[in-house]
Amino acid sequence: MNLYSEFPKYRGELEYRCQVCGNKYPADELLYTCPNCKGVFLLEDKRFEELKKYPPETWQEIFDKRAATKLYPLRGIFRFYELMAPILDPEDIVYLGEGHTPIVFASKGFQKYVGVKFAYKNEGQNPSASFKDRGMACAFSYLKYLVRKKGYKDILAICASTGDTSASSAMYGAYVGDLIKSVVLLPHGKVTPQQLAQPLGSGATVLELPGVFDDCMKVVEYLADNYNVALLNSKNSWRILGQESYSYEIAQWFDWDVAGKVIFVPIGNAGNIAAIISGFIKLYELGIIKFLPKIIGVQSSHADPVFKFYSEDKKTRKYKPVPVRPSVAQAAMIGNPVSFPRVKKLVDKYESIGGVFYVVQVEEQQIIEGMLVVNKHGHIACTQGGECFAGMLKAKELDLIEKDEVCILDATAHLLKFLKFQQMYFDNAFPPEYEITPKDEYKNFPKLILDTSVKGSLSPEDFYKKAVENIVRELGLKEKNR
After folding, report:
1. What CA dihedral angle connects 394, 395, 398 and 399, to 10 degrees?
2. pLDDT by residue (tens digit) across 257-306?
3. Cβ-Cβ contacts under 8 Å for 85 (sequence gap 6 or more)
4. What's the DSSP call for residue 159?
5. Which of 134, 357, 382, 136 has the alpha carbon at shortest distance from 264?
6. Where are the domains of the chain?
7. CB of 339 within 8 A of CB of 278?
8. Which of 42, 188, 264, 373 is the most exposed place for a label (fewest CB within 10 A)?
């Protein structure tokens, strides 16, 4: 059987497993929280052990060959089909170009300046310009599966968002069409204009609520528990499953050798870091990777419940939600991450099999300046990417990074989504609660080389001549030797 040039015949048997009480439920219905204790789920394949019949080298070859396939259902994240959602048939799978995002190393000069070997995984190069597309591709494929298998009609998909989730869910909903209608609930005034434009452009119903993301999340959770709607936030364990592909792609990029790698992830609602840990555990259990990378979560001091938890003594620590303050890393403004129970359970397992996990805390000033400095060196990082950079510097300061280790930073979205914050920094327009004081060295403004009144008062020839003279003076140019 040619496992990389045809759609797999393997089908898994997935079930929801509660990360709080351990109860299990069949995965043929839309479930978000445990009926017994309201805990969150992870999806597990009851037939996972069967995958061990193939040696690790075979899986490496299969996934590598599929990376070049033109077979539509195995493009992107679904080239890892057996590890993703192996109940889906080809007609269920939605592919819009997600996945395959590059790992781009910082220039040698920048790495030398920082004193750390590091690279960015550019998740902003997904189709809606954020990592959320990985999870949405899986979640919408599952919804199509339910429509086909169960005959569901008029599914209403809803999410709370600070921007990226709404953009992604609206785009995938628009692509699937009449089968699924998209609704997004946003915190009023707390989404950048670029991010707001995306769901509006995709034709989604966009609702706004005074407050912060946590308020929106409580509303959509209530709707999902009491009404016939499909929740598309990271409580949806199908989304977590899709986001595991981030781990698989990192391992594949480094030819399945992640020894000496340090993975930095902004925590936010904690779904992505949970997915990444889960993904590396699966690869390790199948022997596809021989070593586990070090994983370091990053939180802003304006929303840091997970940092506070892991800063306490292991024997007495207790998790407590925290009030949030404004953050330039908008996805970080979450004081009670939905996926924390997943993180705790997965971290315990990760550490039990030899993995290393830390959480570091950074300040808002460090986050915004992290974004500015990396982009001045040729990257396209969002504020969450700046948060990762700041986290790497903090980890270096705390001696959490070994000399020869290579850091992989998560730029969760494209810089263009966060131009509002860049401009606020340049204009010194941050309200006091952000605790950001701009520095001139990071500011940049356009320079007008001729007064606007000059154009009408000079002949075209004199106008161009004057422009050249001013540019030469501004740039200090010297004439060519003739």
Report:
1. -140
2. 999 999 999 999 899 999 999 999 999 999 999 999 999 999 999 999 99
3. 14, 43, 138, 141, 142, 238, 241, 242
4. E
5. 357
6. 96-129+151-445, 452-482
7. no
8. 188
CATH of 96-129+151-445 among 3.90.25.10, 3.40.120.10, 3.40.30.10, 3.40.50.1100: 3.40.50.1100
DSSP 246-314: HHHHHHHHTTT--TTEEEEEE-TTSHHHHHHHHHHHHHHHTTSSSSPPEEEEEEETTS-HHHHHHHS-T
> Could you tell me which residues are beta bridge partners of residue 42?
17
Single-letter amino acid code for the residue at 131 = F
Amino acid at 314: K
Structure tokens at 396: 């270096």
pLDDT digits over 422-456, tens only? 999 999 999 999 999 999 999 999 999 999 888 88
Q: Is the pTM of this model over 0.85?
A: yes
Residue 412 three-state SS: coil
Per-residue tokens: 433: 């609660």
